[in-house]
Amino acid sequence: MIYYNLKDHQEKIDFKNATIKGQGKEKGLFFPENIPQFNEEFIQNLPQCSNEEIAYQCMKDFVGDEISSEILKEIVAETVSFKIPLVKINEQISVLELFHGPTLAFKDIGARFMSRCLSYFLKDQQKKVTVLVATSGDTGGAVAHGFYKIPQINVVILYPKNRVSPVQEKQLTALGENISAIEVNGSFDDCQNLVKQAFSDQEINSQLFLTSANSINIARWLPQQIYYLIALKQWIQQHKEHPVICVPSGNFGNICAGLLAHFRGMPADHFIAACNDNHVIPDYLKTQKFEPHQAVPTLSNAMDVGNPSNFVRILELFGNQFDSLKIQYLPTPSMIRKP
Ligand SMILES: *Cc1c(COP(=O)(O)O)cnc(C)c1O
After folding, report:
1. Catalytic residue among 25, 27, 107, 196
2. pLDDT tens digits for 142-178?
3. What is the number of the ligand 1 atom nearest to the C-alpha of 248?
4. What are phi and psi of 321, to 5 degrees?
5. What DSSP assignment string belongs to 199-216?
6. 107 catalytic, yes or no?
7. pTM above 0.85, yes or no
8. Is residue 168 in contact with ligand 1, taking CB distance under 6 Å?
9. Which residues contact 290 (CB under 8 A, 6 or more apart)?
10. Strands 244-248 and 270-274
11. Is 210 near ligand 1, meaning CB less than 6 Å away?
């Protein structure tokens, strides 16, 4: 599969190099050149599919022949090697439990897939790569665990002092080996700025090969499609209607992966992005103006993002057509409950 840079469509890159580089020129995000459709039979037979098979079907077209199918099957099996149950709240509402992975964050799925792909691609090269990541709490732990003891990769995590929970701090700092965590006397935005500065620093980049492991990286973004299909598999065993899918959103990588799966043929009636006090996208849906701002700290710190980086991918999916993206910015009860 070929990917292009959303900031400069002339820059094209394969899966391997997009995974290694993370982002393109001018910090542009990579986007797949075409949206591969799911086989209809696959969707019909979802209840009979294992999670490993679903994961393989989700990822194979995006990887192409850059990883052999045997190895890709091993990678996706390790990616989804914990339970992902859809738990019923009542007759109409269920919740997908994505906290059964090693660091209790849904980011475990993306981090496990990305780390294994990156390690595979580095095997035939002399390169050592440093994964540099800023975290407000969840990302750092998932990335640290996903890359722990993986050869040729060092991980450096910047986290804001006193702003991550005690459990999260232990997840970041207690592993050792190839994982280093640095406590920054400042906010998450300060950590993020240090990371951005490092990526554009020529002296650092002449000595270290840096890459990022947040949802900007396609190898962390794309595998998030997998659990939407794992959810659907369980949903259609109990319901006749297509689901309305609500996703707590910060950088909008997660919901964007769900939308991508939908564009590939996964049935869903509607998507709802749930935001906290950081409501740049709800505002955009009301005013058609995209106005990033400084993030406001809240209790749901993983959603405290003032400039959601994956929104450009959502726009691209909808052909940059505001009207098709904006059906309704708030769900009405009739959209949740079908007669
Ligand atoms: C990462 C995270 C989010 C935000 O996900 P995005 O893909 O950035 O929209 C929301 N909730 C929790 C608990 C998270 O860990």
Report:
1. 107
2. 999 999 999 999 999 999 999 888 999 999 999 999 9
3. 10
4. -100, 105
5. HT-HHHHHH-EEE--STT
6. yes
7. yes
8. no
9. 280, 284, 311
10. parallel
11. no
